[in-house]
């Protein structure tokens, strides 16, 4: 619940950011009937997401969850449940703040300046160890 509220305490999108986010959502086909996106994106993909869905792609590459969270928050709930390969694709976009998708038809670059928030439950074995130690 706290992670979803983070977008409300971040500063509002300025005009340039709003245009960038609107362009990304338009290319992805999720803009709907809005003329411009005015709220920071909050994306929370399921832990079974594929690398391609996270990065983006397809025959005509569309933005993935990384770019759809541009200027907003990418929330990964149950972080240990995500596959190692899926988490590895986050390294480049977090460092470079952009993502490059190369296909036969050409290369596509999408922005990816987002805040990554992750959560997980404590390991049950550690909790049992802690309870035994206190006894």
Structure description:
With 135 residues, this protein is of the alpha/beta class. The protein has a single domain, classed as Rossmann fold. 39% of the residues lie in helices and 21% in strands. It is built from seven helices and seven strands. It has helices spanning 2-9, 15-28, 51-55, 65-68, 84-88, 91-96, 124-134; strands spanning 42-43, 56-57, 62-63, 73-77, 98-103, 106-111, 115-119. Strands 1-4-7 form a three-stranded parallel sheet. The protein has a two-stranded antiparallel sheet with strand order 2-3. Strand 2 and strand 3 (62-63) form a beta hairpin. The protein is globular. The model has no long low-confidence stretch (mean pLDDT 88).
* Major sheet: 3 strands, parallel
> Which class of secondary structure composition applies to the elements?
alpha/beta
Distance between the termini: 33 Å
Number of helices: 7
Short key terms for the protein model shown above:
135 residues, alpha/beta, globular, three-stranded parallel beta sheet, Rossmann fold, 7 helices
Task: Explain briefly what this protein structure is.
With 135 residues, the chain is an alpha/beta fold.
Blueprint of the fold:
Elements: H1 2-9, H2 15-28, E1 42-43, H3 51-55, E2 56-57, E3 62-63, H4 65-68, E4 73-77, H5 84-88, H6 91-96, E5 98-103, E6 106-111, E7 115-119, H7 124-134
Parallel strand pairs: 1-4, 4-7
Antiparallel strand pairs: 2-3, 5-6
């Amino acid at each position: 619940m706290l992670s979803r509220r983070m977008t409300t305490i971040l500063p509002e999108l300025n005009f340039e950011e709003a245009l960038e986010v609107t362009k990304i959502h338009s290319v992805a086909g999720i803009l709907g009937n809005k003329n411009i996106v005015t709220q920071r994106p909050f994306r929370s993909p399921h832990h079974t997401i594929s690398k391609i869905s996270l990065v983006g792609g397809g025959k005509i590459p569309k933005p993935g969850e990384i770019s759809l969270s541009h200027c907003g928050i990418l929330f990964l709930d149950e972080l240990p449940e995500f596959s190692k390969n899926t988490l590895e694709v986050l390294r480049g976009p977090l460092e470079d703040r952009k993502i490059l998708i190369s296909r036969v038809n050409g290369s596509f670059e999408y922005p990816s300046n987002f805040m990554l928030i992750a959560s997980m439950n404590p390991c049950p074995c550690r909790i049992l160890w802690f309870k035994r130690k206190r006894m």
